[in-house]
Amino acid sequence: MTEHILVVHGMNKGKQNEALQHFLEQILSRNIHDYHIAFLESTKQSLEQVLDTRIQQGAESFNIIPLLLFPAKHYIEDIPMILKVYEYRYPHIKYKIAEPLGTHKLMTKLVKQNIFFKVKSHPKIQHIILMAHGSERYRHPDIALWQLTQDCDVFEIPISMMTLYGYYNYRFNLQHYLKNNTDILIVPIFFYDGFLVNKAKHHIAQMNDDCNIHYASAINFDPLLSTMITERIKQLEVFESVSNSTQLVR
């Protein structure tokens, strides 16, 4: 039997991991019952610790579902590297890695909903900006964010993309929009309104003089995430009988 491991970023300090696990259990309770949660940053529930426990209890096949928005370092390097180590230690195990959630069609639907609610209540908005984490090393997240931005361009309002890090860094690109618009909408493409989002909001407030800045909600563990995760698992199960070798589903 293949076991499902949901991999969350998490934090080594504080109680964020407990809160994340609680949110996930709430949204997954109706659709998914047999799964394990692992964190990339954790002293008690890391991906390595979860794999150790499951392998010791006899598990040999794993579906790895990264709860990440776009393919950057954690998806391209960190998770595969951990799994390669375990594949070397335990040659009999098999695993498959699902695509990130940010490229799922329902993510587009969710972001559109968040934009719609704000545009409806603030009809003077002149520009929409999707803001994600970004990467200084990889172009993959920029390409995925660009596609999401194009898919959300349905409101007859100019729309752009920016990131916290990398080529599209808001620190270098946002000032133009603040100076040339009276009202803009910033849409955080993050799982929740946490430290990074609030830090960016604080810095943007310091950059701004006269523009009215409106913020849409982050994803904030919307129930649609449950459907996205379920469908990512189903996509992996389609490949279950194709090969007995390790595979990375693209």
UniProtKB/TrEMBL annotation:
Protein name, entry field: Sirohydrochlorin chelatase
Claim: Ion transport is one of the keywords in the record: no
One GO molecular-function entry: lyase activity
Entry annotated with the keyword Lyase: yes
Domain of life: Bacteria
Lineage of the organism: Bacteria, Bacillati, Bacillota, Bacilli, Bacillales
Pfam families, per database record: CbiX (PF01903)
Keywords: Lyase, Metal-binding
